Amino acid sequence: MELLKELILLFNYFVGFYYFSLNTFYSLFFILALIGTFIYLKKLRYYYITELKAYQSLPPITIVIPAFNEESVIIRTVKSALEVDYPFFEVIVVNDGSTDNTLEFLKSEFSLVELPFFVYKKTIPTAKVKRVFISEKYENLIVIDKERKGKSDALNCGLNFSKFPYFCTLDADSILEKDALLRLARKIIDSDKPVIALGGVVRVLNGVEFKNGHLEKIELPRSTLANFQVVEYIRAFLFGRYGIELIRGTSILSGAFSLFQKEALIRVGGFSSNTVAEDFEIIVRLHKHYREIGKPYYIGFIPDPVCWTWVPEKVFELSKQRRRWQLGLLQTLWLNRRIFFRPKYGVVGMLIFPFYLFEAFGATIEVVGYPVVILSYYLGIIDINFFKLFLVLAILYGVFLNVGGIFLEEISFKRYPGWNHLFRLLIFGVAENFGYRQLTSLFRLIGTLQFILGYRRWEVVKKDVHKNN
Amino acid sequence: MLIYILLISIYAIFSVSFLLLLFDALRRIRNKAYYHKKDRLKEKYIEILNNFVRNKNWELVEDLFRKLPIGRIEREAFLEALLKTQGLEKEEIHYLAERTGLKNYYLNKLKSKRSLDRGEAYKILAYLGTPENYQIVYEAVKEEKDPELIFVGLLCLSKLIRVEDLKPFITLLESLFNSGYINMRTITICLTEVLLKFSDSSLDVIIDVVLDKHKNDNFVSAILDSLYFSPLKSPKFLYLADFLLETKENPEILSRAIKLLSKIPEYLNLLNSEKIFNLLKHNEWIVRLHTIRVCKYIASLEVLEKLTPLLSDENYFVRKETARIVVDLLIDTAPHKLSELLKMSDRFAIESLFEVMVREYSLKKDPKYLSFLRETFACFYSPSTTTDINLTKVDYGTS
User: Fold this and answer.
1) Given A45, A114, A132, which is nearest B120 (Cβ)?
2) Residue B353: how many other CB atoms lie within 10 Å
3) pTM: predicted TM-score of the whole model, two decimal places
4) A139 shares contact with chain B (CB less than 8 Å)
5) Please, what sign has the CA dihedral across residues A419, A420, A425, A429?
6) Across the interface, which of A43, A114, A393 has its CB nearest the CB of B394?
7) ipTM value of the model?
8) How far apart are the C-alpha atoms of A411 and A409, rounded to whole Å?
C-alpha cells in the first residue's frame, strides 16, 4: 500500500511538472503570437496584395484536390478553386476510387470530356490511373480517375500530372478565400530564401453561407460540436502555429490547404503513405532534406491566407479524425526519431520535435490523471483544498488559452464581427473545458494505443452535408 | 505554500483573461465609433471630390484645403476618398495630396524609426508621390535592411521613377541583389513596372546593363525576365538576343535570350536561323526547350526536320514541348505527316506525340484519328512500371 501511495505521489508530481511545463510553452507561444500579430497586422497595411496579380512573373500554381466519396461537397470546392483570384493556375481533381457519385457530378457540372488515351509518367509511383478528363468549360481543369490507394497516393498522382512549379493541396471539403493564393505568392516574391512550403489558416466552414463557391455570409455553426471546433481551430492556428512560426519552427501545415514547391516535393519522393498524417510527415521530411544538404530554404506559416473546411458534427466522426491526427503525429515522430535533439536540424530538432512529443503525451496524462488525482484525494495523498484549487487552475488556464485565441482573432482578422459571435465564442471557449476537451483527450489516447498496437488504417470521416451548392 | 502559489496563479490567469476581454470590448466600441465617423467623413469628401470631377471648379475644394489635415481620422478618410473617387486625373490627385498636406505627412514618415510607418509611407507615396519625390524615397530605400520593406520601397520607386533616374535605380537593385536583400523575382517585377511606364525610352538603359560583361549572370537573367514579361515588343530584342547568344555561355542567360525572341516572331527572319537551330543541340535542356518554342515561328519545312529528333530528347519537357509544336504545325495543314511520325521507333517520342495528339483530337472529337491512334498505339505498347497508357475504348459514335 505504501509503495502504491509513493507511486501515486510521484505521478502527481509528474502531472504537476507536466502541466506547468506544457502551459509555459503555451504561454510563450501566446505572447509570441500576440506580438507577432500586432506587427504582422501593421505590415499588412503596406503589402501589395491585389496589385500582385498584375505581375506576369508570379509563379504558376497547380491546385490539387484529392477526393474520395465527396459527392456532397466536391462541386462547390472545385468551383471555389476555379474562382480564386490568381492569374496563372490549374486545378487537378484526383478521384481516388470513389464509390459514390463524385465523378458523375463532376462530369455533368464541368462538362468533362474523357481522353481516349493518355500517357501517365509516374515520376512518383502511384496506383493505376483509370481515366483522365478535361473540361469543355474550363481550360485549366483536369479530372483524374484512379484506383483507390489513399490521400497521399492521390496527391502524388496530382503531382505527376501537375504542370506548374508550385503545388497547392486543397481538401475536397474545403473552400479557398479568393485572395488566398495571392497572399501566399507574396511570400514567394519577397522571400530572401527559396520558399519550399507555405501554409495558411484553416477555419471552420460549418454554418458559413456560400454561393457559387464564394463565401456569402460568415456565421457560427448550429452544431455544438462544430462550435467547439471553431474555438479550437482559432486557438490552434492563430497562436499555436503562428507562435511556432515566429521561432522559425513551422513543422505542421494543414493538409487541407498548403503550398509546396513542386521540385522540392519530387526531390523528397512526394507524399508518403507510411503515416496517416501525410501533411506533417512531408514537412518534416522537407526540413530534414534541406538541413542535410545544407541549402537555404523557407518553410513557413502565414496567418492571413484563409481556407474554410468542414468539421465533423458527430462524436463518432470526430473520434475518427482525432484518433487519426494522434496516430499520424506519433507515427511521424517515430519515423523521424533521428531528428530529436540533433543541432543539425535547428529549431525543429532541438525544440519543436521534443515539444510535439511532449504534447503528444498530454492526452494520456490527462485521461489517466483524473482518476489518479481523485484516488490520491481518497488515499489522503493530496489535500482537498489543493485538489480543488488545482482543478480550478487547470480549467481556468484552459479558458485563458481560448480567450487568448479569441482575443488574437478579434485584434487581427475578425472573421466573426458581431457581438453575438463574440459571446458565443466565449461561451464555447469556457464550456470546452467541461467535457469536450476531455472527450478529445480520450480519442487521442485511443490514437496513442492504436499507434502502440501498430494500427495504420486511414479512417474516412463522413460529412453530413446535404446541399451541394 | 503550494496553495498560495496556486491561488496567485489563479488570480493572475483570471486577471489576464479579464483584462484581455475588457480591452477587446473597449476596442470594439472605440473601433465602431471610429469607423462610423471615418465613413461619414469619407462620404462627405467623396461628394466634394465628385463635384469637383464634374465641374473642375477648384473653389469647391478650397474649403477642404483649409480644414485638412486635422487628425488621423480626417487624413485616412481623405486618403481613402482620394483613391476611391473615379475620374480624378493623376495630376489632380498629386495636387490635392500636396495641398492638403497628405503627401508631406507621408514623406516625413519615411524618416520614422518605426519600420511599419515607413512601409505604409512607401505604399501610399507610390500613389500620391510625384517624380520630384523620387530622390527622398530612393535615399530611404537605400537605408532599409528588411527585405519586405525593401520590396515595397522598390515598387514605390518604380512608380515614381523618371528615365534619368533609371541607371542609379538599376545600380541600387544590383547592390541589393548582391547583398541578398532581394531576389530575382523582385528585380523582374520592378523593372517590368518601369518598362510599362516608359516603354521604349527606358529600353536603351536596360539593354546597356545587359550588355555589360561584368554584371552578375543571375542579375542579367532577372533583367531579361523583365523584358520578357513587359508588354514591349521591340526589334532591339533581336539585337540583344543575338549579342547574348554570341557572347554568353550561361544556359540561364541563353534560355532567356531565346525566350525574348519568341516575343518578336515578326523579326525572326532577320536572324540567321542556323544560330537558333544550333541551340536545339545545346547540352542544357532549358535552352533546348525555349529554342523549340521559337522554332514555332520560323515558318519553314526545315523546322520540322530539326524538331523531329527532339521528340526523342532525354528530357521529358523538351519531348513534350516538341510534340506540342509539331502537332500544332501539322494538325490542320498536314495531318498525314503526324501519322508517319507515329511510326518512329522511339517509344518516348511516340508517347510524347500521343499525349498531345490525344488532347487535341479529344477536343476535336475526331473519331477517324482516335481509331487510328488506338490501333497504332496498341501495336507497339508493352506494359511498363513507370508509364501507364490508357487504351480504354471510348465511343465517339463510330466504333
Assistant:
1) A45
2) 24
3) 0.82
4) no
5) positive
6) A114
7) 0.73
8) 6
